[in-house]
Amino acid sequence: MSTLLSDLQARVLTLRLNRPERANAFNAQLIRELQTAFTQAANDSQTRVILLTGAGRAFSAGQDIEEMRAGDDSLSYREHLQKTYNPLILQIRRIEKPVITALNGPCAGAALGIALACDLRVATPEAKLVVGFGGIALVPDSAVSLLLPVMIGLGRAQYYFMTNEPIFAEQALEWGLVNKLFAAADFEKETTAFATKFAAGPVGAFGLAKQAFNKAVLPNLEDVLNTEADLQEIAGKRDEHKEGVAAFLEKRKPKFN
Questions:
Q1: Bridge partners for 14 per DSSP
Q2: Which domains does the chain have, with CATH numbers?
Q3: pLDDT greater than 50 at residue 174
Q4: For residues 22 and 111, what is the distance between their CA atoms, to the nearest angstrom?
Q5: Which DSSP helix (H) or strand (E) runs through 54?
Q6: Among 79, 89, 199, 253, which is least packed by CB within 10 angstroms?
């Protein structure tokens, strides 16, 4: 079964994360399918806007923890990031078409990085954003260490990383993390209409402006992604990460020493 659903209507390509039983957590298959979808969308003249959302009641819980194989010393977090999230983030920032995230529910961890890498974000009032990494003693990756401070400031970014508290939709709107809120009952209709409006716009100029924004605000994006991968490799080998993952899977509070 495909973990990613796609539908092209009125030149808007809707990509729907489709692991609702796992809160749309990313596994290897879903990441591969998403990378392939962005590659195809970049080369498809019929696609003018990409709309990314989730099936069910969550956008995405981030990386599937059970797939991380905690305690397996052969797992390289650096290699994992270099094959998965890092190229995906760069795809999103480099594709010269608007990419809009529709946050239909909670968004955490690597999924937060993917959402922040998109050009625009809309959400339901029930959505919440969680940095997530600190809860299992990892560092922010998927460009969260760059994109979150750029959008809300370093102090706030560090606070929400260290506390793991959620940023609720109304606060996210006030800070500019999301651009619009749409009621859950009308969410799909409103987000489709929102995306269709941009599909009728000067998409070529949007793409050139995206290059300018990248150069002005995110010129070190690739370097940051590489640094995140290096630091995650270190964090992933530490005992506190193993304890964090064990506590998460056992649904208890971690005991960090």
A1: 7, 51
A2: 4-184 (3.90.226.10)
A3: yes
A4: 13
A5: strand 49-54
A6: 253
